[in-house]
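Quick sanity check, NodB homology domain-containing protein:
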Amino acid sequence: MAQLIRTFILVFFISALLLGCSSNQVNEDLTTAIPKESSEKLQEKPANTYLNETENTDAVDEHLDSSKVEQSNTEQSGTTNQKIKYYVNRNYFIKPVNPDDPNKVVLLTFDDTPRGENTVRILNILDKYQAKAIFFINGHYAVKNKELVKEIYNRGHIIGNHAWWHENLNYLNEEDTKNEIIKVSDLVEEITGERPKYFRPPNGALAKNPYAKEILANEQMQRMNWSLGSRDWEIVKPELAEKVVEEIKNNVISGSNILMHDIEITANALDKILAFLVEEGYTFVLPTEVIIEN
């Protein structure tokens, strides 16, 4: 009996040893099969977003086709002296057209606007730092605050389209999609004389809506998501503005396309955010100097 037990233990030990070697080999094979990303690529991932989609999630390293920049500069030459200096890659980071440009830059954007007092506060703080931004408006706010839309425009900011009711476009039919997008562009043109050039889908979502993509093409509007979310939409409470400041401080890198909202907590946090960015040597990109890669 004792001999039988010793034999069983010996067999069990040998089996366990063989299994361990096999497992190690599998792990080594898996490790070898998974390519290591460069530190730059790992860093250049969208931070603190609420994107529901998987498209365009990989950072893009290739440089923008110079012909696109030349074409855009030619189109703008009759209306502005500004030239395209930056482009937005497929991961919505801001990249310099000149790869040797040493400047640290960020793009400021505000969603769900205009709402009233907080909009004015945000505009005044931007003026203080001589910063320009893209304001992505919702139609149901804008139709009640037309003078504020005009004020945003008159202060040199860009008006973007953020849909009428902020509906998730992935679930809308053709008619509802048109109402969400085209009505806003019509309203902006009525107020400013110009149709929006940028569109930010509510929640960043439109991959499943072919009607939206067709409308953007017909309207010559470019989709503009973001690469860094301030999380102001999650934190919300005005007295917790310092948390929004910390989100930006902890996650911003050169090229960040920053998402904020036209709400009280953001108005409370914005002065400290911009002061920090200036102190750290960041420049605020002029939206008129940007082209979108895709």
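Posting the structure with no commentary besides this: The longest strand covers residues 104-113.
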